[in-house]
Structures are given as structure tokens and as C-alpha cells.
Amino acid sequence: MKRSRELAAVGAAMVLAATLVAAGPVSAAEEGKPSEPSLVGSAKMLREDGQDVRFAFDAHGLFPESRGTFRVSHAGEGFSAYFRGGIDCLVVGGPVAVVTGIVEDTDVPGLKDRRVGMTVYDNGRRDRVGYSWGPDPEQKQIVPPCLGTAPFETVETGDYKAVEWFPSGSGIG
Hints:
Distance between the termini: 56 Å
Strand order of the largest sheet: 1-2-3-4-5-6-7-8
Radius of gyration: 24 Å
Number of helices: 1
Low-confidence stretches: 7-24
Number of strands: 8
Shape: globular
Mean pLDDT: 85
Helix content: 10-25%
Strand content: 35-45%
Structural class: mainly beta
Order of helices and strands: HEEEEEEEE
């Protein structure tokens, strides 16, 4: 009887060990760690002259699998402009995220189907944004994927959250 209980205990231990090995290590998502980089949030820029400039991002995934959307609007005395599009690159290093995307809808002549670049510095409630674009009918000033400028605009209201992530084995992070 004692021998059968010992064999049953050993058998149960072997089943438990096999189950743990088959399950593998706890995934990053299960540990609460990110499984991809992201940039999310919206904010209004600080403009002393009263212009209303806003940026919104919902970007996920490491280039070349980046996806998501962006929206930009700019209104001032006697003018307004907007554009929105799809993200084609996202790279996040620490608190800095660079996104590029193709403009899909706009009221700015010459901007549709163009790539634009934006950079966000996620600095708590003192975030900053930089951007590079402009009407260029001859397309001589093309923004490459994953390229943005220094974040020179200051956020007045709103917030961005940049989440850094690189795949294991990449040697980064």
C-alpha cells in the first residue's frame, strides 16, 4: 500500500512537471509587461496667440508591423485645417515615440496620400510634440518611414502615453 502511494505521488509530480514545461514561461502579457510598443492619447498644444492645434494618436506595433491612426487639427483666426491617416511606422525608445503615417483624409491641398512624421516626448503632464510635413505638390520633400523631428511644441491640455517594447533577443532594451 505504501509503495502504491509513493508511485502515485511520483506520477502526480511528473504530470505537474510536464504541464509546467509544456506551458512554458509566463508570457510578458501575463506579467503585465507590454507585448508591443504603443503611443496613445490626445492633446491640445499651448499657443499664446489662441490657435487651437491638436494631435491624437492610437498607434501600436513595431515597424514594419505598425498600425493605428492619427488625427491633427489646426484652427486660428479665419482659418482651419485637419487631416487624419493610418500609421505606417512606430518606434518608441524610453519616453520618446516617433510615428509616421499616410494622410488619408484632409482639407489641406497637396497633403492627401503624403507621409507625415511626428515625435512625442511623454514627460508626464508636460508632454511635447514635433512634426514634419507641408503641402508639396511636386513631392520633393518626402518624409521617410520612422522619421520625425525634435518635439518643439508644448502640450497645454491632454496627455500621451508612450510604451517602449523591443522583442526579446533583439539586443535592445
